[in-house]
Task: structure prediction
Amino acid sequence: MAHPIVRNDQVWCPLCKDYAYLLKIIKAAKLADVSCKTIYRYVEEGKVYSVKIAGSTIRICSSCLLTQGN
Ligand SMILES: [Zn+2]
Result:
């Protein structure tokens, strides 16, 4: 995985082609009103941009999340 490009608190998302805030999985799940499992599925399917932090923790792009349908 490429090293993320960070600007202030935002990270460059290659899917959105813009800078976006990253969310913890649990926060993303609450925001999108889906389960954490669904968020992980989005990540696996490449529907949302994700960044690995400290080896195991994943943060995901908030803008990608907002473009996900049902
Ligand atoms: Zn994105």
